[in-house]
Every structure is written in C-alpha cells, then in structure tokens.
Amino acid sequence: MYTIKISKLSETIILAKSIAKSIDKEKLLNSKVIYLYGDLGTGKTTFVRYFLQNFGVSDNVKSPSFSIMEQYHINGLQFYHFDFYRFDYQSEVLSIGLEELDNKNTIILIEWPEKAMEFLPKPDLEIFLSCSDIENNVERYATLSTQKNKEGKWLTNIINSYEKMSDHI
Ligand SMILES: Nc1ncnc2c1ncn2[C@@H]1O[C@H](COP(=O)(O)OP(=O)(O)OP(=O)(O)O)[C@@H](O)[C@H]1O
Ligand SMILES: [Mg+2]
Q1: Whose CA is nearest to atom 5 of ligand 1?
Q2: 59-80 pLDDT, tens per residue?
Q3: Is the predicted pLDDT of residue 164 greater than 80, yes or no?
Q4: Residue 50: which CATH number?
Q5: What is the pTM of this model?
Q6: Which of 25, 41, 43, 164 reaches 20 to 30 Å from 8, CA-CA?
C-alpha cells in the first residue's frame, strides 16, 4: 500500500502516466483489472481519461456513469471502462458478461467496484482516491495497492516512476 498526494491535476496526470508506462503491453496475457474507489468527484474518471491518453485514446473519454461501460480498441489493446454507481443490486453486473472480457491485451478499469464486488474479477491494482474538501479542491490523495504477492514489484516500479517524473514539475 502506498499513498501519494495528487492535489494538482498535473500530479494526477503523472500518476496516470506512471501506471500506464508500467504495464508491459507485450506481456498482457490475461486482462489487467484496475479498481478505482473514491467518493463522487474524487477524480476516478479524470484518472482514466489521462491513463487512456498514454495509449493513444485521444477522443473525449466519457464518464460511463450512465452507459455503465465505455470501450476503446486501439493499437491492438482493448480497454473497458465501467462505472457501477447506479447499480441497486450487485447481481446487475452479471448481465454484462465480464468473464468474457478476460482476454489478453485487455485492460479493465472499474469505478465503484464496491457496487458489484461479489461478482467481479480480482483486481491487479486498486486505487483509492480521496479529497479533503471537494468544493475548494484542498487536498487530494491516491492510495495504491496490489493484491497479488507477485505484483509487489509492480507497485514499486509505479512509485519510482511517479517520483522521478514529479521531480521535474
Ligand atoms: N488533482 C486532480 N485530480 C483529479 N481531478 C481533479 C484534480 N483537481 C481537480 N480535479 C477535478 O475534479 C473533478 C473530478 O471529477 P471526476 O468525474 O473525475 O470524478 P469521479 O471520481 O469520476 O466521480 P463519479 O463518482 O461521479 O464518477 C474534475 O472536474 C476534475 O477536473
Ligand atoms: Mg466517474
């Protein structure tokens, strides 16, 4: 688990870039699953928007809060961006066919995973976003956690890369 301060938008952009860069596109044999937690307006969609930019998704990345899912296919990679906020029941996720998305070259990003946790694939990376005063944008934090033991090195790479890049702003 690692917490960094991302009060400035430029820091969120660097975090998104660090994570994007740390994913070895050649070795994406199983889908990578990223959970994004955080209250309304803490920056989950904003993070995804900048994350996708690193892979060449330049069109307007829309929030999936109404559509539930937005997808992007670019340079041989498949991205699925979900937002389960509107779910009343965890089981609503079953109609989406998430298990069929577990393919190579696939990255799945999920906002509000707690709304469907029971039926979701395990995350490779969890990002907890928080904001101490949303109206005045006082302080924002991101806590990163990788669940699978073997991913510990991945987290270290992300943090090292983030620190290196943020030295230059
Ligand atoms: N450092 C920052 N990182 C992320 N967003 C920031 C930052 N500073 C300001 N913002 C602003 O905060 C807002 C975050 O909104 P966003 O839609 O990304 O939140 P969300 O967590 O996806 O909310 P929801 O749960 O409603 O989907 C945006 O307007 C964004 O520009
Ligand atoms: Mg959102």
Answers
A1: 43
A2: 789 999 999 999 999 999 999 9
A3: yes
A4: 3.40.50.300
A5: 0.95
A6: 25
